[in-house]
What does this fold into?
Amino acid sequence: MENREIALKLVLDAIEENTSIGTVSDRLRLQKAIYICQEMEIPLGYSYSWYVKGPYSPSLTQDYYNLNSSLSAGDNDTKGLQLHPDLIERAQRVKEALLPPPGVDDKPHWYEALCSLHYLLKASKKPVAEAKQFMRTVKPHLNDLLDRAHDRLVQMHLV
Amino acid sequence: MFKDIADPVHGLIRLTKVEAELLATRAMQRLHNIHQLGLAYLVFPGANYTRHAHSIGACHNAGRMIDAIQRNADHELCKKYHEDFSKYRILALLHDIGHYPFSHATEHVIADYFTTTSGSTSLFASGKGVDQDQQPAPKAKQYRNHEEMGAFIIENDEEVVSVLKSNGYDPVEISERFRLTKPEYSPLSGIISSELDCDRLDYLRRTAMNSGAPYGSVDISFLIDQATLDNDGNFCFRGKAARSADHLLVSRFYDYMQVPFNKTAVALEWSLMESLKLAFGLGLIKPDAFAMEQRVSRGSDWQIFDDQYMFASFRKILSESTLSPVQADHLNAIACRRPAKLIASWDTLRSKSQSEGGADQYTEHAAKRKTLTKITSEFCEAHGLDRERMYVWECKVKFTKDGSDDDVESSDPSYFADGVHILDEKQGRARRLVKRGDMLVSTLSKAYLSGLRIYYMPERGDTKHVGTISQEFIAFAKDRFDLPTLP
It folds into this structure.
């Protein structure tokens, strides 16, 4: 595996997200999980822009397809590399941030709500009320999660 | 005030006042000294055009696409975006302003440098087990890619900011559109960033014209004239452009294989990347984000940071540093055009495999790459060759980008991020070109070119043993690997 693939694999292992990309939900889950990782000081180097389902990184797409191909070819050789201990520590906080609140079963939807709201507040620099209103307009399926997503962002000092 | 510029690809190009003033800034003039195709001109002498000429062409294409959209799309919808149109021409002109010398090769080396270098920049543990002396891990990205550099320049370069402001444009807003950070700005962004954007539509024709390899000579004029928006404001092309778009995607494949992935161009790029690593490692060039931002803040420091600056650094290393023989050979490969030699090649069209759930995979390529890398190391050991002189090059050339699977629906984040979209006139909705069974790319999207090659860097350019090494390698690998397609 290339070093970028190794770094991605090690981080996904550390936050206990599997590397599967078979479905739209899988790809969305990976996109958003890595987004939160980067916001919580695990700098993998991906740039995100706003697309149909919130923050999305085309270069991450290329990397998780490559990683998935390597793994399916039996290449899981991480060349003896391990994640920096600081990053392993930060990964624990990422897991806390991503953990769906009680009663929320749809993990991809939760990730989408959390990351989309964060992106609108931080990257698009929208005020909270405007960001929430925008979400209600373009993502009505996430309405029930908005307030809890905002609470989580505040709790984790992400906004 | 307008400025007319004669261009060999598009004819006469007319720039508006703000565009002409932007073109005169140091940051844009710098692009005169950044080759679009890296070192490809050492193989195709005419392929020496620059990002400056290309940027003007991209601006022209963006303008023509905007004109076409105004003709072809719903007038009420166009009114909504009317004030934005001039901004997208500006974005097209500025789209390459943040490129490093030698463009993508340098960016790739910088990204790799900050993933793997030990010390305070590394994401990995420094050794086996926990090292008490290891520096803390970085908290933020250590480098900027060319798009992030571009956004930084638009917001911070004194001249660019001044030109934009004096012409009534907000640099922050232009930068935000550049980075696609505002969701409201997305619909027209396809003009600037998509598989058939103003950039690619210039690049293919310009490369074909300058390199003498005519594979990108496609009917871009007709294609551009068919640009439009669907009823939701998504950028796409009218139905009659489907065949032309299909042709372009196939032509792009031939262009990649003939020019950037030419066997000697790849060899030179390997040496370029090794030389860049050396320059970073010796501290001659600081590739971190802060150092680059400081260059921009000083204006003239960014202006001189071009291909020639790197060549001067390489010459300085050659004359003043103590180098290993391999390092010297890489530097001389560029300075004296003494490229590494291809000793075997397995460029092969393969079918994508599917994961559980249906995502595309490149399993066969990944497995072959792994085996070939192992064989190469064993061969070097068995024959007493320096592993540093052998290079396993790999590429996957796809007809459409990853995430562009046939089954992807518009709810997938990648639906409008990648791919070519053609207007379904009845529905008023943009649909993926690859979904049309009458398009060649519909079938080709299930395949990819798996490029695997072995290069050898001869000592001091002495190529007399290369043929023997090639034969020995093929003989060594034959029981465990396919026979090469070349040489």
Summary: Chain A has a mean pLDDT of 92. Chain A touches chain B through 54 residues (CB under 8 Å). The first strand of chain A starts at residue 49 and ends at 51.
